[in-house]
From TrEMBL:
Belongs to the eIF-5A family. Keywords: Chloroplast, Hypusine, Plastid, Protein biosynthesis. It is found in: Plastid, Chloroplast. Pfam families: eIF-5a, IF5A-like_N. This is Eukaryotic translation initiation factor 5A. Translation factor that promotes translation elongation and termination, particularly upon ribosome stalling at specific amino acid sequence contexts. Binds between the exit (E) and peptidyl (P) site of the ribosome and promotes rescue of stalled ribosome: specifically required for efficient translation of polyproline-containing peptides as well as other motifs that stall the ribosome. Acts as ribosome quality control (RQC) cofactor by joining the RQC complex to facilitate peptidyl transfer during CAT tailing step. One of its GO terms (cellular component) is chloroplast. It comes from Triparma columacea. GO terms for biological process: positive regulation of translational elongation; positive regulation of translational termination.
Amino acid sequence: MSDDNEYAIENADAGASLEIPMEAGQVKKGGYMNIKGRPCKVLSISVSKTGKHGHAKCNFETVDIFNGKKIMDMVPSTHGTTVPIVKKEEWDLMNIDDEDFVSLFNDAGDSKEDIKLPTYPDTLAQEIRDCWADGDNQVVVTVQTAMGMEEIIAYKKVD
């Protein structure tokens, strides 16, 4: 082989998935599952017995983790469903602009400026604004990420 050959090495995405497949009967209370393309937290599960027409059915009562809406779903226990990968990270709040976009920084030095103050629950955005306006304390927000969506879900004051 000669040294004349050039090899192009390209970087590629690892192909990380936003969700993982799981059998409906394996989903647990307090866990997460996707219903109609939305990431939901499982509030309760009731399982009906196997009848003459086949599989036992799992009845899921869930709440959307971003907007708080309750969603019900029924899936045969042996059928597949998907579970979202939910990640929570803490960020330091640096600024809130006039359009409610926030500037955030984490311990690694990364920044985010594409997240708005939350719309759910109703009072959370105003509580964050009030805490930020106080100016005496550092404000740390918790950002939840799932299914390509991210939103602030909590905050705390740090003295």
